[in-house]
Every structure is written in structure tokens, then in C-alpha cells.
Amino acid sequence: MASTVHAQEKIGDNLIGLAAAGAMLFLYVPVVVLIAFSFNDNRSLTLPFKGFTLDWYVKAFNNQDMMEAIGNSFYVATTATVVTLIIGTAAAFTLDRISFPGKTLFRRLILLPIALPGIITGISMLNLFRLIGFNLSLETVILGHATALVSIVVTQVYARLQRFNRRLEEASSDLGARPWQTFFLVTLPNIRSAMIGSALLSFTLSFDEIPVTFFLTGRDNTLPMYIYSTLRRGITPEINAIGTIIILASLVLIVLSVYLLQKSNQE
Amino acid sequence: MSAIVEIQNVTKTYGGKVTAVDDLSLAVEEGEFVTLLGPSGCGKTTTLRMIAGFEIPTRGRIMLAGEDVTDLPPYHRQVNTVFQDYALFPHMTIQENVGYGLRVAGVPKSEVGPKVKDALVRVGLLDKAADRPAMLSGGQKQRVALARALVRQPKVLLLDEPLSALDAKLREAMQVEIKHLHEQLGLTFVFVTHDQREALVMSDRVVVMDQGKIVQSGTPSELYDQPASAYVADFIGNSNKLRGRVVDIQGRQVRVKVLGTEVSGLARQNGISVGDLVLMTVRPEKVQLLVEEEEAGSASLLSGTVLDNLFHGSTCRMEIDMGEGEPFVVDLQLRTALDQANLAAPGSRVRLAIDPATVSVFPDDGAFAS
Is B370's pLDDT higher than 50? Predict the structure, then answer.
């Protein structure tokens, strides 16, 4: 009797294991295919593999247009992250420290953009920029990204500030520190991991953002836009190569950001 | 001796409704150890926070060493605080915590090091200098908080219930340690607590507060032996409360009829006249239990029935039914094993001799109604 129960449990465990494996396959097979073909010594994306090559990586790095697109993407993601971080941190402090009429509404509204589809943000900002006569450029893309991402920073930094022990600031002030010293020596170090974590997440999201960028960019292309435009001529192994690099870089950033945000939650 | 802290008619209200501190005046002498004592919400912590500068008085002035500091921010006041939850900076090591006050003041690094080391030696934590606060025990954190506050050589050290998070044994040890620190440094300490025993053990002077006002201020023994009100008598130590009626007043002495017996020679409080209902408080250890036919001398006699004997180690608390009100308690010293064996058993009648000099009489304002 006991052994049957045991056997049943074993079958159950195996089934769960199988389901988990299925889920992982579903998630990662496409990625593995992309990575595998970026090393395949064949212009067309068909099996069987012909051999190992790094040619596509060399070609990708020699592609002037693609390099320019990567440069643009870095510019957009970095600037958008910095803008987001400044506005988001300031908003988080306002929410945490100052009570004003309509505060709850303000908190809800500031979190709304993350729930809005990118296409809505894109179209509405496009309308606005047209209305006030802005020319579309990478800078308009930055504004669009910053709008969509600011809620990430606000959420994380606000959550950290809520758990932050205000007595520490009092202790600092009590020990003779001026308000700016208290901010830089006590407050900032304690919310730093929340800030860096949300910044990394913002950077990653901005780097591969398409819908908002699609509406707001001028003549310059970001990397995802460039890849999208070249796809009309079919997937080339060069794109697989650059895709592999992006996957690795994103992975590092995401893992780092999750680690930092987790650390921030434990503090 | 001159007043180093002077609180002049200070009132603090929140939102125009809640009055935390109500027209309070208090002068603290230089080198004094003053404790603000009271239940939570009595305004003691608010008072301390106003001295530190975290709260601005709604009305009144606060003087520090003769200077009006009422509107100065905390970082311009020469007082330092030890917080209830220690408030150590979690991202700094112990020596960085202790040196923080010197660092922000721009003291050169070469001078900070030795001063921090001295402070850590004083509290016996030199070996923890490189640790983070999270690695320390409650008692150690407490010591770091003390060292951090003292390294700036403040004119006044403020302590906001610093021992409330520690367990009983450690708390007693820290009480002694802080008291010794005060004696060594000769500094002015203002201590806030809701623990009356802590206040009695540590302070030169205890200020009892209630509802934002000072109820009584005096040395621990004054408060214990001559409480100014039934509130103080009840808050400090244990008291038996008896209700009686004044039958005679002669000069400063009153005679009160209580439980069918007339007790004379009681000290008269202001506002008492013949026929008044009064509340009498008697300390449990100041009552004598008479055996058999023993004479009471000048003391008055009351009698009752033993309800229970509660063994407390060195003492035994006897609960006695006096026929009305709450049980009367008497603390008996157990000097020998014989004392314990000879205790009157529950159910037996006992006689109590009460020395009028140990009884406080207050107008019965309806407080403590049973």
C-alpha cells in the first residue's frame, strides 16, 4: 500500500518535471535557434548545420548602418534612463514626503503610463509633438521612452522610501549634518540599489522598445527599428549575430537589476 | 549651577487639535540627570524632540546654555540624541557611524580616528569597529548609539526610551552603565521613559508628566515618599488605595475615618476640609503585620482576612480582603525560612498597623474609582 502511494508520488513528480521542461522549451527554443544560426556557416537559415563560423559577427560589426543604429539606441536608452531616473526619483520623494491635495490621484496617474500600450503612448505623443511643432528626432523618442518608463522608477524608489527609516535622517541632522549632507550621506546610499535596479530595467526596456519609437523617430533609426526594416529582405545571419549579443547583454542587465531590486526590498 | 536647558511655557499642538505639550516650563541644571516620566502620549517624547529640534514649539521658547534655540534646526544645536531604535546607519561600519558627527563637521581625518577609537574603547566595542550594525546585538547597538552621540561632546545628551527594546536583565545592566557614564562625564542627561523603576534608579530628578503637563518634579525619594497627587502615587511604585472621610482637622493634621477605624495624625493636603471624601495611599512595604496581641503603638489598626500569599523570592506579597474595595496588599520581607513558614494562611484574620507618616491623603476626585 505504502509503496503504491510512493510510486504515485513519483509519477506526479515526474509529470511536474515534464511540464516544467515543456515550459522552458516553449520559452527558450526560439532563442536557442537564433543563437545557433548566428554561428552557422550558411547564408540561408535551413538545417542541417554546415559548420561553425564567426563571419556573421564580423559582418555585423562592419555594417555601418547597423553600427549607427546601435549607437542611436545607446544614446536613446542612456538619456531616457537618466531623464527617467531624475524625474522618477523626484516624484517618488514628493509622494513619500509631501502631502498635498489629490496625492492619491497623482500616484495612480503617474503609474498609468506603464499600463498603457506603447502604441497609445506613441500616437498621443506624436499628436502632441505635431501640435506644438516639434520635429521628430531621437530626442522625441527619448521623451516618449522617459514617459513610459518613469513609473518603473517611481514604483521602486517610492517602495524603498516607504520602508526607509526616517529616524536615520533625524539622527544625521542631530549629529550636525546639513540637509544636503544627510541626503547624500544617508538617504541616497539607502535607496541606491532601488535606483540602480530600476535604471537598469529602464535601460533594457528602452533599448529594445519599438511601438513608441516607431511613431516618434525621425530619420534616425534605433537598433530594433533597423532590424525590423531589414527584415523585409528576410532574416540574415548578421541579425542573428547582433541578436545574440543583445540577448547576452540584456540578460546581464536584467539579472543585475533583479538582484539589486531584491536587495533593495530586503534592506 | 545654572540652567543649561530652559523650557519656557512651551505648547505643542498638532493640526490645531491635539495638544501634546501644554504650557510646560522646565529648567534642567548643568550636570543633572533628569528623567521625563509618564505613560505613552503624555508629551514626554515630544518635549525631548523639541529640545533636539525635530519639532518646533507652537508657543513658548527653548533656551540652551542661555541661547534661544527655539527656531534653530537640529544641526545647529549642541545637543545629541540616543534614539529608541538606535537609528544606526545600516550602510556604514561601526566606526563610520561613531565618526559621522565629526566627519560632517569637517574634522580632519587624522583627528577623527583617535576620537572614534576613544569613544569605542569607552563603550568596550573597539573590536567591532569594522562591523556593520546588523551584526551587533541590541545591547551593543545601544552602546554604539551612545558613543556616536557622545563623540561630538554635546552640552546635553538626550535619551529617548533607549532601553525599551532590551530584555530585562540587559536593561538593568545598561541602566547602571548609563548612570556611571553620566557620573564620569559630568554631562547633562535628559532621559525619557515610561518605566518608573528605570526613572527611580537612574535619575537625580524625575519629572512626572501627564497630558502634556508636569504633575510633579522631584528626587526619586521625594516622589516615592511624598507624591503630590494620587496620580503620582499610583504611577510610581505600588500603592494601596483606601477611601475615607475627614472627621477632624487640626493645623496641618487630619483625622480620617476609614473602614470603621479613625486614623489620626495624617499630613494635610491643600483643599481638604472636614466631611470631604479622601483617597489615602499606603505603600505595601510600609505596613506592619501584627501577630496575636502585639500592641500597635502610635500606629492605627486595620483588620482584614488573608486572601492569598504570593511568593516573590525575597518578599511575599500578602493580599488581604478589607471588606470593601480592592484587596489590600502588604509586602513582607522573608529574612529566614521561618518567616515563610509563619505566614498567616489564607482565611485567617490579620491586623495591620499603619504609621500615619507613611500615608498620603488626597482629595477624592473620582480618579481610580473601582
Answer: no
3-class SS shares of chain B: helix, strand, coil, % to 5: 30, 35, 35
Residue B8: domain span: 3-233
Task: Considering only the C-alpha atoms of chain A, give the largest distance between any 2 of them, rounded to a whole number of Å.
Answer: 80
| Dihedral angle of Cα B279, B280, B285, B286, to the nearest 10 degrees | 170
- Evaluate whether residue B370 is within a structural domain: no
Over residues B263-300, the pLDDT tens digits come to: 877 777 777 778 888 888 888 888 888 766 655 565 67
Cell of A200: 537598469
Number of domains in chain B: 2
CA distance A86 to A92: 10
CB contact under 8 A, A167 and B152: no
From the candidates A163, A172, A173, A175, which should be mutated to test the interface with B, based on the most B CB atoms within 10 A? Answer: A175
Same domain for B184 and B283, yes or no, is no
* CA closest to A188 among chain B residues: B91
**Shared domain check, B279 and B131:** no
Query: Residue B257 maps to which CATH number?
Result: 2.40.50.100
For A167, name the nearest residue in chain B, comparing CA atoms only.
B87
Whether A233 is in a domain gets the answer: yes
The residue segments making up the domain with residue A106 are 56-266
**Nearest Cβ partner for A173 among B73, B85, B89:** B73
What is residue A228's DSSP assignment?
H
Query: Distance of CA A68 to CAs A71, A203, A225, B72, Å?
Result: 5, 18, 12, 57
The kind and range of the H/E element at B154 are none
The reply to whether B219 and B286 lie within a common domain is no
